Amino acid sequence: MTKLRSDETVTMQSVAVAAGVSPMTVSNTFRYPERVQEETRQRVLKIAAELGYIPNHAAGNLASGQSRVIGAVIPSIKNSSFYNYVRGMQDHVATEGYQLILKLADTLSQEASAIRTFVGLRVAGIALVGDEHESDVKTLLRKTGVPVVESWVHENPFDMAVGYSTSDATRVITELLIERGYRRIGFVGYQGDVSSRFTERVPTFKQSMEKAGLDSYRIFLVDQADGFGAGPKALEGLCAIDPDLDAIVCPTDIVAAGVLFECGRRGWKVPERLAIAGWGDYEIASEITPGLTTVQPHSYEMGQRAMSLIIERAAGSGATGMMVDTGFHIVKRASA
Amino acid sequence: MTKLRSDETVTMQSVAVAAGVSPMTVSNTFRYPERVQEETRQRVLKIAAELGYIPNHAAGNLASGQSRVIGAVIPSIKNSSFYNYVRGMQDHVATEGYQLILKLADTLSQEASAIRTFVGLRVAGIALVGDEHESDVKTLLRKTGVPVVESWVHENPFDMAVGYSTSDATRVITELLIERGYRRIGFVGYQGDVSSRFTERVPTFKQSMEKAGLDSYRIFLVDQADGFGAGPKALEGLCAIDPDLDAIVCPTDIVAAGVLFECGRRGWKVPERLAIAGWGDYEIASEITPGLTTVQPHSYEMGQRAMSLIIERAAGSGATGMMVDTGFHIVKRASA
DNA sequence: TCGGCGTTTTGTAGCGCTACAATATTCTGT
DNA sequence: ACAGAATATTGTAGCGCTACAAAACGCCGA
């Protein structure tokens, strides 16, 4: 439809004519302002604004082989866990003159399709979550050489990575519960084909428990898609294993909140009857009563660093294999 | 960086050579498969896959003036209200061979920047939320003629719109409370520069109350950024107006949940002491106890219809001014 | 006044792809 | 076996922009 009336399409050419300069000067005005004399630049900018000129990114990208758009694949916006991550990315790219576009993908094959779109768009870089990807797209990404950063990944980056150790965090939060006197601690994990940032927690939990001389068999897996609903299921499942359960470690604050709501229904006091630990420090963690003790990953910083890694590489500096650990901290509230 | 080793870049040309056909046949294989003989197509597809060829969308877009990428601007992913909307969009475009990319924008100027990026990318269409946009970008959008659909908008579309009447919904939920015997009903609104899909509720609330012969002065405004925290503030504010408040209408389920948590802290029974109505039917509405009575907008359908409007226009049919009402329904739960 | 230098501006060519028209190939029916 | 239609494939040209090299301009001191 843009083509229907090509006489109306505002192109760099038409701006150039209107401003009485060559197209190259218009191009330079936008891409390398310092190469153009102040006076000329102002004139071009003014004319461009009057005409409503928007550079055709597709053409620029084609001609230069460069792009100032970065693509990020986000697993889900169902809960707020990626909110700060996205905000960090967005804020950072804005300061560098880049643009961020997002695609949502709940499954590996959706992720693959999203990556293909981004590659087709010839973006300057791609941010992914987690370290599990279809092998086809790995080959593809290798071949194109586009900078890729994996977030929430702590080791063995595909290209570059930024994250924290979920294993360390699991250990720290488990030890906190033990230290506070809880002994019959249950662990809730996700079942099915989930990211290693979840699966690697189970062995660490077991290890931490055993190191303290405690039983580590109270483990129950729930479906990641269940959201709050996973809470009641998990509680029921763990009580079937041990009715005298005294604490529970949840994979996210959403599940933890679900458990808390279920405790309410059962008339169980938290943390007296059952202590609850969450993960992610979602907004709800601080709003419900009692507040949730939870793991706070530095998601905002993660988003920022993810973008800076990509931008460095796009700008020529930076190297493959880069790894940034953004750490985490435990937020202690009343639930545990 | 893609250019560093141009001998390694897989282009349509290189696929054509490897498959022993002309570039046009490769192009047709991807864009108009029916124009290419089955046998030839299979061969080209096979070679393309082996070489890891991904069509350069930037080049295709430039040459054809068409794009199969649609951009959507989402106000926030902080809560789940847009989850189903995005899912509806994503599912629909997938069936039509389009791709959806997202940009987040919390403010009008961020929205404007997002729109500029999309226009620069020459997307096939743009989906926005709400009907308030910077006048500059309105001019720009008018000029480029790109199909634009506004969601959550019920009248006077800029180009096309899909939504439901928040005014009708306000009336229905207020009448429900009245019908159930509540008389001292308070209304929570958002203050500041918020979308008309929020502001238009206040007059309807007043009108509904007055029509029933009830007082309509119990109105309190909270900051949209406050999330759950807005609940306690709103409750406090409304109690200052009328300590005997018996029901409360919230702008979102998040605020309603915040109110509910605050009631828990105060030891108030819901709905005996205070009835609570939410908005949006977020996941949390069905998970907390008591469940929230709330307005369920058909967000998923809204997303689907938004995309179908754009795709129809991109495909040549469809007209400006189209409006789709996706309706809403009230989910009755225990809170009111 | 003029060569020489740095700054600013401008042709030229081509990025990878697709619309379109033209050509080549295959398939009808007689 | 062959005209004519239908189908399949292929040149040509150009989309809007930018890298690069070449040209034009302005300014200085001699």
UniProtKB/TrEMBL annotation, chains A, B:
Coiled coil: none
Signal peptide, first to last residue: none
GO MF, one annotated term: transcription cis-regulatory region binding
Stored PROSITE patterns: HTH_LACI_2
Domain named HTH lacI-type: residues: 10-64
Sequence intervals crossing the membrane: none
Keyword annotations of the record: DNA-binding, Transcription, Transcription regulation
Pfam families (alphabetical): LacI (PF00356), Peripla_BP_3 (PF13377)
Record protein name field: LacI family transcriptional regulator
Source organism of the structure: Neorhizobium alkalisoli
